Amino acid sequence: MICYDRLWKTLIDKHMNRTELRDKIGISNATLAKLGKNEPVNLKIIESICRELQCSIEDVVEITL
Fold it and tell me: What's the pTM value of the predicted model, to 2 decimals?
């Protein structure tokens, strides 16, 4: 299962909220909702998040078994 809990922690560490992230990387509300529900999103979105937050993919997504 995909889990984005690390993304939300990274956002807190970077003093950014979900809306700010959405606006900075240009994703839709629907994509933001998918992230909030731990649903799969395009890898390009993950890449954009990592670039914006200057972090690695491990700081954004986790695969739980």
Answer: 0.92
